[in-house]
Amino acid sequence: MASSPVPDTVAPHDVRVISVLFAVLTALSNGAASVLQRRAASSVPDSASMRLSLFGHLLRQRVWIAGIGLVIVAAVCQAVALATGPIAVVQPIFVIELPATLLLAGFVMHARVPRPIWFAVAMVTCGLALGMASAAPEGGHDTVSGTAWIPALLATALFEAVLIGAALSTRRDPRAALLGLAAACGYALTAALMKDAMARLEGDGGIAQLFTAWQLYGTAAAGVGALFLLQNALQAGSLVAVQPMLTLGDALISILYGVTLFGEHLRTGWWLVPEAVAVGLIAVGCVQLARSPLASGNPPPPPRVT
Q: Measured between alpha carbons, how far is 41 from 45 in angstroms, rounded to an integer?
């Protein structure tokens, strides 16, 4: 199935720039939302874990509502990014969400950002640039046939069930990490469904076809489920346990959806070498960021003024 045509007034390069720009805006909005939501979720009692009453506690906090506002902004930006570019391009850009989260956390906490964090941010950013340039994701189609969704949804449901089951058998950071990965899978599925739904706008039915597509309502259901898992992950443990699993898991699982469902292509052969280097840079950078005091919620004090 061919991709939707690009209007004559907009060059393909310009479309890709728009996609990348809105993907970056999505990552920044999500990073800010994570900081605000973590701040709200940390005050919720353990008795509310994995219960709908969790939302009752959160809705009484303005900081959480502000975080949800940023989630909505991120969703709009993500929809634009996915409508104008391959999922294998858009979702991996979200690895900058982790550096953005920690830098924003330092700003909110009025904490000094240590030099190692800046080095780690540079490693993640350079790794992302190298990975995108090496893999050069392209091609694919904008929609997915209905039957192709069946095995994808079944595999996703099984993966989620295993993660949630394992999370319920543990506590604190291990639970937070497992639920963070489960939330990442949910957000990756949300992105795939969103891209498929947005492509319906290009059809003859226009917006009416969009609202009759099950993918739109699947997007809403998957997004709410992912949000529920994320809130429980943030409540269960520290940001250091949640954010790396959420950010990297979302990117990698989204690439898998892009290749298997949308037929997108990545470079292979000798290109695997710089791609592996890029993954290594991102991994090392994320580990360094995860070890930072900002990630653990214990930021270093600001320098004293003498």
A: 9
What whole-number distance in Å separates Cα of residue 282 and Cα of residue 128?
Answer: 7
Q: Helix, strand, or coil here: 265?
A: strand
User: CA-to-CA distance for 189 and 194, rounded, in angstroms?
Assistant: 8
**Which residues fall within 8 angstroms of residue 83, CB to CB, at 6 or more apart?**
195, 198, 199, 201
pLDDT in tens, 47-96: 555 566 666 666 667 877 888 888 889 888 988 898 888 888 888 888 88
Q: Quick count: other Cβ atoms within 10 Å of Cβ 215?
A: 22
Reported in sequence order, the residue ranges of 4-142 that DSSP labels E, i.e. its strands, are: none
Q: Categorize the per-residue pLDDT at 167 as very low, low, confident or very high, splitting at 50, 70 and 90.
A: very high
Chain position carrying tokens 């990698």: 252
Spatial CA neighbour of 80 closest among 132, 21, 137? 21
Q: What is the pTM of this model?
A: 0.77
